[in-house]
Automatic annotation (TrEMBL):
Species: Winogradskyella aquimaris
Listed Pfam families: DUF2256 (PF10013)
InterPro entries noted in UniProt: UCP037205
The name this protein goes by in its record: DUF2256 domain-containing protein
Organism placement in taxonomy: Bacteria, Pseudomonadati, Bacteroidota, Flavobacteriia, Flavobacteriales
Superkingdom: Bacteria
Amino acid sequence: MKGVKKQNLPTKICPTCERPFTWRKKWEKEWENVKYCSERCRRQK
């Protein structure tokens, strides 16, 4: 995702809080498996 503007990054909707969240560098290798925007939402499933 080098050279991509912030507004052009991929986004997903969190199933717990139903808010959109954006791609992050730490999720680079596992973006396909990321479902929740935060650890808190993941625990609340």
